[in-house]
Design brief:
Elements lengths: L7 E6 L6 H14 L3 E4 L1 H6 L9 H7 L2 E6 L1 H11 L6 E5 L9 E2 L3 H9 L3 E15 L2 E8 L2 E6 L6 E7 L2 E8 L1 E5 L7 H4 L12 E6 L9 E3 L4 E9 L3 E5 L3 E5 L4 E16 L4 H8 L8
């Protein structure tokens, strides 16, 4: 999409971030200078004191050429969910700590947007996962994840037993605290902290990572782009939950099956040219090279 096509921009914001109000005012002033029409989601409209201008993202997505999100990774996950299957590109402006999904830092807002509005940017197509709960042999609910779908016990539950099948073949049964199904995008989130590998953002695969498995030989598995993972709840002494991108939480029962596969739908993230993913990794993970 060329700069001339950015005629209408939707803006979403995280109202809990301390810098959000000032950065939002700066953003709106800049877009006005550029002659770009702006549509505000309810959070952004309330933050700037213009509740009368609020429009739900389900409406904004129909006409906006670009969605600018002020916040962090969680805000982008919320916006991506509300966009549904609409391919509107998302530009993340980090307000707070460094995020993996946000493309620019708040302090570089003007120069970065100047580049992007004139067409100097890249689009990163991020693959998503589809997670379906089956109960009694019947599909119950399906949700799409940009980051991950996580089966986990509640704070007061004991360990669970989960049977994992890949492409219909039994892999093993895990005695563990839960299971993470992560996209390449989500491989740097919960899965990484549980010992999973990092996948490059546009990799057409997903990672299955057990949470605190009792067998030390249990490790992450990378499923291929057409792979299907089925996780069967064999036993659970307490409440068990399926959480999708931290946005949706569903209760699971013993006997439930969760099917996870790569979805055909993608999320399009706007990134600055010349900004390396490895640079983000070095900053976020504090990789500074050898200490010898």
């Amino acid at each position: 999409m060329s700069a001339a096509q950015f005629k209408s921009v939707g803006v979403a914001a995280h109202i809990g971030k301390p810098e959000s109000r000032d950065r939002l005012a700066e953003l709106l002033g800049f877009l006005d200078e550029q002659g770009v029409a702006v549509q505000l989601d309810p959070e952004a409209a309330g933050l700037i004191g213009r509740p009368q201008d609020a429009r739900p993202l389900t409406e904004i997505r129909k006409s906006a050429d670009l969605l600018i999100v002020l916040g962090g990774d969680g805000t982008i996950l919320r916006v991506a969910r509300e966009l549904g299957e609409t391919p509107t590109p998302i530009l993340g402006v980090n307000v707070g700590s460094l995020g993996f999904l946000t493309s620019i830092r708040a302090e570089e807002l003007r120069p970065a947007l100047t580049e992007i509005l004139r067409g100097d940017y890249n689009l990163s197509e991020r693959h998503t996962l589809s997670a379906t709960i089956h109960r009694g042999g019947k599909p119950m609910e399906t949700h799409r994840a940009l980051n991950d779908a996580v089966i986990s016990r509640s704070a007061f539950s004991r360990i669970v037993r989960l049977r994992l099948l890949l492409d219909g073949e039994l892999l093993t049964e895990y005695v563990c605290d839960g299971m993470i199904f992560a996209t390449a995008t989500g491989s740097t989130a919960y899965s990484l902290s549980a010992g999973g590998p990092i996948l490059m953002p546009e990799t057409r695969a997903f990672v299955v990572t057990p949470i605190c498995p009792h067998a030390l030989s249990n490790r992450s598995i990378i499923a291929g782009r057409t792979g299907v993972a089925r996780c069967v709840v064999v036993s659970a002494a307490g409440e068990l939950l399926l959480t999708v991108d931290g946005q949706v939480q569903l209760r699971l029962q013993v006997g439930d099956e969760v099917d996870v596969r790569r979805s055909s739908k993608t999320v399009r993230l706007v990134t600055r040219r010349g900004h390396s993913y490895f640079e983000i990794l070095r900053q976020k993970l504090k990789w500074s090279g050898a200490n010898v």
